[in-house]
């Protein structure tokens, strides 16, 4: 059994492995940047297409709806394909979707272009982490998954602030064009550098397992769904929170957005090794800290006045939120894949579907709370839901067992 065909059970972590993981991380980076672009470019898209900011905010929700609806069917359809072919399919769809979005004459065409990207979004995340774990020894699976999520953090540190600044200065269409070019380049790199990763006979025999009957996987996915819903209730309007609650207005908020992602970029490698050994403690601690960040921001929003002190405290809460939100994602996906070690792709598919449902519910609930009750209620709801997830992790007994 080799890296080219199956799991890297005996293969050490080599420089070639690092290069391949870098390509996978780049794929995560560009997909995350494309997905979350409306958050930073929300005012520019609203003004450019003549629609409300609330309507632009629904782009995240409908993106997640499409991803949630298509993930499991596509995972099953492509289950027997070499893993590289599946990844290339998702990257080609991403590139094509950005071409459509860049030329969109109205909001409907923009939404349709993003839908094409969303169709394969869940499929990409379903195979990305399993591909990474197949390239390294099993003792490094948590670190390999974390390496992939570094791309997501870089999207928040570099991708989103950069596209946000480009949208404000030169228009959102140029930002989409840049994403298009990057996506095409990553597609080519993946085709050249990654092995085919054909599934072994043993792996093919396990395709189609009924993962919805896996109690541990369902429980991990449910906890993640609750936490993601809480996160996206507020994250969908993080630009508004930074401006109105923290008191950092205008183009300067891009720096705090970058700090949000940079905190995650720092936290993930620091926690990568501990999560391979004590996943329950580390994951639960991250959830509790993120809930505390929401509590602080909710308290500041109730106060309603800005000073140097409140801005510093609010900025610290934003940074803590970013660090914990980014760090906990690979922890939960690693836990999900550990519940089905013989078919991590299928387990990852169910997990990613639940993740997208959480994004959908969080984005829609955030929009309703923002319009009808304000940022205080929005942040309080986030604190409560993430806190529930933290309690659930603490109360669990077998969900985070490391073989």
Count of individual helical segments: 16
So what's the overall shape? Answer: globular
* Record field, number of beta strands: 0
Q: Look up the CATH topology.
A: Growth Hormone, Chain: A
**What is the average per-residue confidence, as pLDDT, rounded to a whole number?**
83
Count of individual domains = 1
Computed CA radius of gyration, to the nearest angstrom: 20 Å
CATH architecture: Up-down Bundle
Cα separation of the termini: 21 Å
Compressed to H and E, one letter per element, the order equals HHHHHHHHHHHHHHHH
Low-confidence stretches: 1-10
CATH homologous superfamily heading: MFS general substrate transporter like domains
CATH class: Mainly Alpha
| Structural class estimated from helices and strands | mainly alpha
